[in-house]
Design a protein that fits this description.
Elements lengths: L2 E6 L6 H12 L2 E3 L2 E3 L4 H8 L7 E2 L3 E3 L5 H7 L18 E8 L11 H7 L2 E7 L4 H14 L4 E7 L4 H11 L3 E5 L7 H15 L2
Parallel strand pairs: 1-6, 1-7, 2-4, 2-6, 3-5, 7-8, 8-9
Pathway: Cofactor biosynthesis; biotin biosynthesis; biotin from 7,8-diaminononanoate: step 1/2
GO molecular function, one term: dethiobiotin synthase activity
Subunit structure: Homodimer.
């Protein structure tokens, strides 16, 4: 059993889509430890993944407000602490979707990145290609390296920018797992197609 933690360089960077693709590719289970606001990413992934081997686990914390976890938790009068998080009991590979980026706060002292070591997970970093994404991606890379966290690789998405992708890969030294172009719509068939492509690269 392997744990893969899907993080990104920011909010709305494609973590949920990437999580669905990895689940479909590996027949892996899915779990989002903290959900802030609605719609729930759990429901989105369930609707995109067709592999019957995949199981979907409820969030440990389902918070009402679309905000940083530390702020949403205060509104709901909930105390988030890394030590209190427990992985679902599964014998499958597990895809864990983070909230926002690596340094999004869980509380006054701990961040999303602190969950990665707690779960002994390998990181899949999602980088959506926009003006400024080089800086945001390489800052995320620095955070991961400074904590000696295991990184499976990077998945790029959005309008292709080979110069950005090349410099990010060169500076990071991370594996280029996949590139997801912009799609007019995302559905289960699109996810299945990308999952088949990802399988060929996953173990390289």
């Amino acid at each position: 059993m392997n744990n893969y933690f899907v993080s990104a360089i920011g909010t709305d960077s494609g973590k949920t889509l990437v999580s669905a693709i990895i689940c479909q590719a590996l027949g892996a289970d899915y779990w989002k430890p903290v959900q802030c606001g609605f719609p729930r990413d759990l429901e989105t992934v369930q609707g995109l993944v067709q592999d019957p081997r995949c199981n979907f686990y409820k969030e440990q914390y389902l918070l009402k407000t679309p905000a940083s976890p530390h702020a949403a938790a205060k509104i709901d009068d909930v105390q988030l602490s890394v030590a209190n998080f427990r992985l679902p009991a599964t014998k499958n590979d597990l895809v864990i979707e983070g909230a926002g980026g690596l340094l999004v706060p869980l509380n006054d002292e701990e961040n999303i990145v602190d969950l990665i070591g707690h779960f002994e997970a390998a990181v899949v970093l999602v980088s959506d290609l926009y003006l400024g994404s080089i800086n945001h991606t390489l800052m995320s890379v620095e955070v991961l390296k400074s904590r000696n966290l295991k990184v499976k690789g990077i998945i790029f998405n959005g309008p292709e920018n080979k110069e950005s992708q090349t410099i990010i890969l060169k500076r990071s030294g991370f594996t280029n797992l996949f590139y997801i172009p912009q799609e007019s719509q995302i559905n289960a068939d699109v996810v299945a197609r990308y999952a088949n492509e990802l399988k060929a690269k996953w173990e390289i």
